[in-house]
Amino acid sequence: MKTTELDVLKDPISKLFRGYAIPGIVASLSMCLYGIINGIILGRFVGPNALAAVNMASPIFNIISCIGILIAIGGNTLTAISLGEQNKRKANHYFNNAFYTLFMITVVIFIMVVFFPHVLARIVGANSVLFPMVVDYIRTFGVFVVPVIFNILLGISLQSIGKPQLYMVGNLLSVVLNIILDLILICVFDMGITGAALASGISATVVFILFFSKFISKDSFLRVGRWKVELKAIGRMIYNGSSEAITQFSAGFSFMIFNWILITKFGETGVSSFAVVQYISLVVNAVIMGMSRGLGAISSVNYGAKEYGRITELIAVAIKIVTLVGVVCTAILILFKSPFISLFVKDNLQVMTTSSEIITFYSFNFIFVGANIIINALYTAINNPKISAILAILRYVLLIGNFFILPLMFGNIGLWLSFVVAEIICVVVSYVCLKKTMQKWSLN
């Protein structure tokens, strides 16, 4: 398939890797940069409790975004495979079914987060201190939930039609707007956590307008047009995207449980400390997620064309790179954890001490998490959500189990090691599945 930017079926894997993975990584890193700066602004100008409140509200939006991911990735897998089969009509059919189905779902989500934020704040376990801030953040950011969720579908679709650079530009624009609005709304107008939510929502809306304009253009490879409803296609999208949705839901659910444990054992200090660690870890997660989203589009198109050797080469390169990134980032975090923590927290020795202890053990998680995410995303991209879902469920079942078992054996250290142990076990299982899949491809 010849796209306007890159030839996914013919260009060398090294060129595609640079063309897709690097823009994906840059886009994710730009969002990560915003997350870090946002954390610094909140921590220093509003206080550690603001960090804790955002950290408690985040699982809600992680779980909500799993709906967007369910349709976006599930639909885009079918769209990209159709593009690999040189069937533009079918690709547009799948794209429009995904677009309008997602719109209907997001309207329901909008009503839920805007009119019932108190219920959601209670679900995540916010105590009396954090409750008002968590409610404000959920309600304010919830106003923009439609463009936020649609940016997932439109961003992934841009990659499938050979425009990963535009996806990158959109994310960079979002970051610049976010930072500017944060400085204005939080530092100048003293709007606190509400200002942070407004900044994120407004910037997401601007990017949505940019992305959406490309899919109503007459010369676009994929266009928003008439919706010919096909329930079977929607069912296939849900099935194909289920593994990624399970991953997102499980991540949000497990962090919700983790926050419950932290606030029970350590109070606001524990949640604030882990929030600092999460902001710092955004860099590693951004590299991994940016790479996996970009490479997923390449894998789907090549799978549709039965170019299995190209997929094998691509995944081998990706796993080596994310593992190397994980090792380097683990070393950097352990060696320079104090300066990093001091960026977010000032004059709170308890939060700084707890954050330092968490980083010492939690950071080893980065060595293994990249391979798990890449392999999991591959199975979604090649229309095998069953294995992808099994791996995703295993990963978070192990994680939640570790939250309760390891502290009994190792105390607080066991709690911080829960993430590392879950990733190590899961990466072994993932490699076994990947080896069997590649052996099967070699016979075709």
Automatic annotation (TrEMBL):
Alphabetized InterPro entries for the sequence:
MATE_fam, MATE_MepA_subfamily, MdtK-like
The entry's localization annotation reads:
Cell membrane
Matching Pfam families: MatE (PF01554)
Q: Which domain of life is it from?
A: Bacteria
Q: Which GO terms describe its cellular component?
A: plasma membrane
UniProt keyword annotations, A-Z: Cell membrane, Membrane, Transmembrane, Transmembrane helix, Transport
Per the record's keyword annotation, is Transcription included, yes or no? no
Q: According to Swiss-Prot or TrEMBL, what is its membrane topology?
A: Multi-pass membrane protein
Q: What sections of the protein cross the membrane?
A: 20-41, 61-83, 95-117, 137-154, 166-186, 192-216, 237-263, 269-290, 311-336, 359-382, 389-410, 416-434
Q: Does the keyword Cell membrane apply?
A: yes
Q: Name one GO molecular function term.
A: xenobiotic transmembrane transporter activity
Predominant localisation class: membrane
Q: What is this protein called?
A: MATE family efflux transporter
Give the species this sequence originates from: Paenibacillus etheri
